[in-house]
Amino acid sequence: MIKKSERTKQKIIQTANRLFYRRGYNRTSFTDIVDASGVPRGNIYYYFRTKDEILLATLEHRMSNIEKMLNDWDQRYETPQERLKRFVKVLIAGHEATSLYGCPIGSINMELGKEQPELQAHAGRMFRRLLDYFRYQFEAMGHSAQHSRHHAMQLLSRAQGISMMTHVMRDPQIMQDAESEIEHWIDTLIPNPTIPDKPA
Fold first, then answer.
1. Residue 190: CB partners within 8 Å, gap ≥ 6?
2. Which Pfam families does the record match to this protein (predicted)?
3. What three-state secondary structure class fits 190?
């Protein structure tokens, strides 16, 4: 059973995570977190002395969720292309929220990268983890390390570009239209079986 103190801490983290995504980190005040969570300010100070500490906790929360998601894909899907396509499904599933608030990973990285690079270094771990995972999947498909990194970067770049335009245009259909295109691109990267030489 989860202790009450841990439930309170998780409530603060989850509330702050939602506010940081929807409003932005710099536009969310400590008071906003107090009001939205319903946790008294003094109780929040017991766990977190500053808003930066809360941000770092939310980033760890997101990283933990990413790790759980990737581990689940490894267990549920047999082939690397199935795992890559699952990423596409998850990306597209968030089209409504993305149209309103942007990509949850990209938006926080862009915001922090402008004036708070020391915090952005922590947020950037999410991108780096996904990039490593994608690279490994392309290597498992038979691509070289160099090509796998290139393909992984392409996939992540496509996802971010589509997410950005969906948000800028406030049009969730942009993401939905891109689903089959990205999946087809993944299919084109499945190596063809080697054709044996004709007998002399």
1. 81, 141
2. TetR_C_13_2, TetR_N
3. coil
